[in-house]
Prior knowledge:
By secondary structure, the chain is α+β, with helices and mostly antiparallel strands. The protein has one domain (7-177): Jelly Rolls (Sandwich). The protein contains 2 helices and 10 strands. The protein has helices spanning 7-19, 58-75; strands at residues 26-27, 46-50, 79-89, 95-98, 108-115, 128-130, 140-142, 149-153, 159-161, 168-177. It has a 6-stranded antiparallel beta sheet, with helices on one face. Strands 4-9-6-7 form a 4-stranded antiparallel beta sheet, with no helix packed on it. It comes from Shewanella marisflavi.
Amino acid sequence: MHNLLPQPVLQALLDGITALSQEDFKAAAIGRLQEQQVIESIRRDKICWLNESMDFTQDYFAWSEQLRLAVNRYLYLGLFDQEAMLAYYAPGAFYKRHLDAFRGQTNRRLTSILYLNPDWQPSHGGELLMYQGDETKPFQVVEPRFGTMVIFLSELFPHEVSLSHHDRYSLTSWYRINDGMPGH
C-alpha cells in the first residue's frame, strides 16, 4: 500500500531517522532471548528498537494503535500490543528468508513494514521478497519506496530482504497477541 500514513507522520519519522546516530543502531541478531546471536551470513542489518517516548515516533504509534483497533474490529485477530524497530541496511546488507513468528511461539500475529527511503531507485536493491509456504519463487516483490507499507500474517509468509546497494531504512511493527490467552 502506498501513502497509507499521513504525510506529517512520515516526515516526522524521516526527520527522526536523520537525528539518530550510528551508535543508536546495533547489529541485528536472530533467535530469541538467551539464544540470540549475530550471524552475518543470515542477516547484516542494524536495528534500533523504538518506543512511544521518542518524540519522532509518537504520531506513528498513535496511528498504528488505530490500525490495531481496526484490525481487531474487522478481522478478530485479538491483537494486544506491538513492538517496533527501525532497521538500517547499509550497502551489502541483506536478511535471508525467514518468518517473523518464532518457532513454537504464536505471539507475533501481524507484521507491518513501512519504508522510509525518499529517493529509492531499483538500482538500490533491498527489495522485500515474499513467499508462499515452501515455494522458491517469490509471489510478491515489494520496492522499499518512501511511504510504502506492507502488512502480512507473521507466521504464514516467509520473506527476505534482497542485497542492498544503497542506504535503506524500514520501520517494522509486530502486533502481538496476549500469550496468556486460552488457545494460543
